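ingest -> validate -> predict -> emit
validate: passed (alphabet ok, no gaps, 293 aa)
predict: started
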Amino acid sequence: MAYHPGELAVQQRMGQADTAQRVGRMISPCIPDAAADFLARQPMVVVAAADDAGRLWASQLTGRPGFARALDDRIIEIDARPVPGDPLAEALRSPRHLGMIALQPQLRRRMRVNGTAEPTATGLRVITDQVYSNCPKYISRRNVEQWSESGPVAVRQAGALDTAQQQAISAADAFFIASADPDGNADASHRGGNPGFLQVLSPTHLRWPDYRGNSMFMTLGNIAADPRCGLLVPDWRTGGTLQLTGTAEITWDEAAFTPGAQCAIDFTLTRVVEISGASSLRWSAPELSPANP
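emit:
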């Protein structure tokens, strides 16, 4: 695993350089059989990419299990596109760098993929550069309770969060983050915690704690090298989504930390997109992770 300078700098600051080198050996360009089986069982993946203006976004794709599947050890096909009005709906009609995470909340499992994507007649084809699994920490357990019939999709856009959006973010126990390295290679990751861990400091300023994970610090390393960032906050109960784009900065001041955090991330949003009916999945109430500080 060849880390870029942003990742190396964060690993050194955290005193985890040796651990990162060791853990990085699990990353492969190929899709193991176990990962292919895992992916084929999932009804949801989250993808990260930049739009044509260079803004990073995270988007949710859903379908019946098998809609995302490995065709061979380097190619994943996804029979889904972002819903109309999603910030990546047009962007993913042309080839670009893509990050992807498949999350199985029922068993607190996740799989991450980084590579390049090209459009197909039914969705996306992803050529993998990095494939690896993550630990189960900070994932809230929840189950799919029903598939709702697809209805009209309503889209709202703004330059700041309204009161209801702020309340939804403050109640979240999970979100997904899009980041990119200095060469534009996109990455999608998950962040979880007890409700309130994603703090609203103002209509355009959020903060969240960074808890100890796999010690590779790929998301933090990307932010250290390129502040562009995107967040996806799903409403698991209704199928709605909040998508934010802006810039992020690592805060090393311990006065800003919450208990159990290694550092804090300050996020300044420049655009918010709210989509009702973005997903047909309806999930159960969460069982919060016992790893949450």
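The CA atoms of residues 97 and 185 lie 5 Å apart.
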